[in-house]
Write a structure and sequence with these properties.
0% strand, single chain, 88 residues, 5 helices, mainly alpha, globular
Length: 88
């Protein structure tokens, strides 16, 4: 298990159920962002798509669907991402 995942697991131990969900969803969101960004071509347009300053930055479900469409995650991982995002 990567160090950042261990750190997250430790942080979640003493958190509320809601806090655990928020931390977990944020972690999955960041992992999907990193996965997709490393797949995109090195171009200013690509870089702007996931810029933290972009008001239209896509959410977790969009990123999961995009990662699935690119063949970066499995159908089960897409389902897990949908579950971790909660009701829409």
């Amino acid at each position: 298990m990567p160090a950042h995942a261990k750190q997250l697991a430790r942080a979640m131990l003493n958190d509320t159920d809601t806090g655990k969900i928020v931390l977990g969803a944020s972690y999955v969101d960041e992992l999907l962002t990193r996965l997709i960004v490393t797949t995109l071509i090195d171009d200013p347009v690509s870089q702007k798509l996931f810029s933290p300053n972009d008001a239209e930055r896509p959410g977790l479900i969009f990123k999961a669907k995009l990662a699935f469409a690119l063949g970066l995650i499995s159908d089960q991982e897409l389902t897990d991402a949908r579950l971790s995002a909660g009701p829409q």
